[in-house]
């Protein structure tokens, strides 16, 4: 369980860093909750507290659902559009950090030449990306889903063992 928790934490922390760089507030909040609940699940396993592990399993189901939503969002399934400000809670116009900084991407900043436009506003042109940003986001979510499903199965197994031990202690 410890190794799985380490992988879950590393994946969530990596994703948290890149979501912070892109000012993606909705995923930042979700990643933060994921980090906290994984710690809670690990604590529940070490301290033999099945209720904490149940919280972890319920959260894992929600986490998988959230990651499926992210996949649908970036692949524009069901009327969703990656061009909306949904991931930033409509607070800013920021997008995925990977949009401009993906592997192989060449980023060109074009400053506006018109006198009425703000000086800090610029158009960013991105070309030459090896893999488009939406696919990188989908890969991140797919990895989260895979690790979470493994964690879910393992947590259910641990809960069943704890319940069997509790039942055997009561029957004696």
TrEMBL record:
InterPro entries: Na/K-Atpase_Interacting (IPR008516). It is a multi-pass membrane protein. The chain crosses the membrane at residues 25-46, 53-77, 142-163. Pfam families: NKAIN (PF05640). This is Sodium/potassium-transporting ATPase subunit beta-1-interacting protein. It is found in: Cell membrane. Signal peptide: none annotated. Keywords: Cell membrane, Membrane, Transmembrane, Transmembrane helix. The keyword Membrane applies. GO terms for cellular component: plasma membrane. One of its GO terms (biological process) is regulation of sodium ion transport. Belongs to the NKAIN family. The keyword Transcription does not apply.
């Amino acid at each position: 369980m410890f190794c799985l928790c380490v992988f879950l934490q590393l994946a969530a922390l990596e994703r948290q860093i890149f979501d912070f760089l892109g000012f993606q507030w909705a995923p930042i909040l979700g990643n933060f909750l994921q980090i906290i609940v994984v710690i809670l699940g690990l604590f529940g396993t070490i301290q033999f507290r099945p209720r904490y592990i149940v919280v972890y399993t319920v959260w894992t189901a929600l986490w998988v659902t959230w990651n499926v939503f992210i996949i649908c969002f970036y692949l524009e399934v069901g009327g969703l559009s990656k061009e909306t400000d949904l991931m930033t809670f409509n607070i800013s116009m920021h997008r995925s950090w990977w949009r401009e900084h993906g592997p192989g991407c060449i980023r060109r900043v074009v400053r506006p030449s018109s006198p009425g436009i703000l000086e800090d506003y610029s158009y960013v042109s991105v070309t030459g990306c090896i893999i488009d940003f939406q696919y990188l986001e989908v890969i991140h979510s797919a990895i989260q889903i895979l690790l979470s499903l493994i964690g879910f199965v393992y947590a259910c197994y641990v809960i069943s063992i704890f319940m069997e031990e509790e039942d055997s202690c009561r029957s004696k």
